Amino acid sequence: MLHAMRVIAKEEGFGSLYFGIRPALLRQASYGTLKIGCYHMFKRLAVENPQDETLLINVLCGVCAGILSSAVCNPTDVLKVRMQAQGAAFSRGGMFHSFSIIFQEEGPRGLWRGVMPTAQRAAIVAGVELPVYDVTKKQLIQRQILDDNVYSHLVSSFMAGLTGAIASNPVDVVRTRLMNQKNFKKDIEAVPEIMHFKYKSSFDCLVKTIQHEGPLALYKGFIPTFVRLTPWNIIFFVSYEQLKRLPI
Question: What global pTM score does this model have?
Answer without folding.
Answer: 0.74
